[in-house]
Design brief:
The complex is a heterodimer. Chain A is mostly helical. Helices cover about 95% and strands about 0% of the residues of chain A. Chain A has helices spanning about 5-140, 145-165. The radius of gyration of chain A is 63 Å and the shape is rod-shaped. Chain B is an all-alpha fold. In chain B, about 75% of the residues lie in helices and about 0% in strands. Chain B has helices at about 1-10, 20-40, 50-65, 80-105, 115-150, 160-190. In chain B, helix 4 runs antiparallel to helix 5, helix 4 packs parallel to helix 6 and helix 5 runs antiparallel to helix 6 (about 160-190). The chains are: A mainly alpha, B mainly alpha. The interface of A and B includes residues 22, 30 and 36 of A.
Chain lengths: ~170, ~190
């Protein structure tokens, strides 16, 4: 029963044929397909990673843009505020200056008025004195009259002085 | 063999890269399992021997199990196991020569010390002989026991025995055969 014969050689030949056939028809295609799938999956992972990186980059970009826009708007607002404040200050200053000027003008006017009044008053006094003198000259040289005239003059002058001093 | 060939032809038809069917998934899972198993033992250098090892494991497995269909298992014949062992022997030594070159291969007989030279030379023949007789003995023994059990009680009783001797023992022997062959190849290549 246990003997070595030609069957050994046949078995080896058959085994080799089987090996070649199996390699060609079974393992070859399967391994090829599996490798292909693996490559495909790897590639997909690669693509996904690339896409993610790109998206992150874009996001960063947009965030930066948003940030700069915010800053810019803040700057604009700040500038506008400053401008408004400056304008308000300026107008306030101008108004003050104008009031000041008006006040000064009014004071000047008042002073001029007063001076004018003084001058008028003085000339009036002078005229009165002249009139009084003329009247005295014209009238008789009675002492009574003179006295009365003086009195009258002094009274007038004093009255006017009093009026002026008020 | 014819069965294997037809089966593989049918199974390999319309393989797809995308959306594999159930059949293809099962096939791929099996092939991938075997492939990973052999790659684990053989390493990257042994990539090219993997299809042969897979062929052998499928062949021995199917041959051992064929007893269940009432056919005499081919591996019960010493010539078949011897043929397998001789192939293994050539493959083991070839892998060593291919990896190290002829000079390096012969020098490896002096490892680890020159005194081991006769042992190493004997090992070349002993390894396949052990492989051959292990497989042959197991299958023959199983076959004989099965014949006896069937002679004693042809109904019901042979079922558990058949499960053990034909399936379990058959696959275990196929596994051991290729496992040891791979191990020896790895050893020779290192």
């Amino acid at each position: 029963m246990v003997q070595i014969n030609l069957n050994l050689v046949f078995t080896i030949i058959n085994l080799l044929i089987l090996y070649l056939l199996m390699k060609k028809f079974l393992f070859g295609p399967i391994i090829k397909v599996m490798d292909q799938r693996k490559a495909m999956i790897d590639q997909q992972f690669q693509t996904a990673k690339e896409t993610e990186d790109k998206a992150n980059e874009l996001k960063q970009h947009y965030e930066d843009a948003l940030k700069s826009a915010k800053e810019e708007s803040w700057q604009i607002v700040e500038q506008a505020k400053q401008e408004a404040k400056a304008r308000a200050d300026q107008s306030a200053r101008e108004a003050e200056a104008r009031t000041e000027a008006m006040l000064a003008g009014a004071r000047e006017d008042i002073r001029n008025e007063r001076e004018n009044a003084m001058k008028q008053m003085q000339s009036e006094i002078g005229r009165l004195a002249m009139e009084a003198a003329a009247k005295i000259m014209e009238s008789e040289r009675s002492s009574d009259k003179d006295l009365a005239l003086y009195d009258q003059f002094i009274k007038k002058a004093g009255d006017s002085d009093d009026d002026n001093s008020h | 063999m014819a069965v294997l060939l037809v089966l593989s032809l049918v199974l390999v038809r319309n393989l797809k890269v995308e959306n594999p069917g159930k059949k293809q998934l099962l096939l791929e899972a099996g092939v991938d399992f075997l492939r990973r198993f052999f790659r684990g033992i053989l390493g990257e250098d042994g990539e090219r021997y993997i299809p042969y090892m897979m062929t052998v494991v499928v062949y021995i497995g199917l041959a051992n199990v064929s007893g269940i269909f009432g056919v005499k298992p081919p591996t019960k014949d010493l010539n078949v196991t011897l043929a397998l062992a001789v192939m293994s022997m050539f493959l083991i030594e070839y892998s060593g020569i291919h990896k190290k070159g002829l000079k390096g291969f012969f020098r490896s007989f002096l490892d680890p010390i020159p005194v081991m030279l006769p042992m190493n030379i004997m090992e070349v023949l002993i390894r396949p002989t052990a492989l051959c007789f292990r497989l042959f003995g197991n299958i023959l023994g199983g076959f004989v026991v099965m014949a006896l059990v069937e002679f004693v009680c042809p109904a019901a009783l042979p079922v558990p025995f058949s499960l053990y001797f034909d399936f379990f023992d058959g696959f275990i022997q196929a596994y051991i055969f290729v496992f040891l062959t791979s191990m020896f190849m790895r050893e020779t290549m290192d």
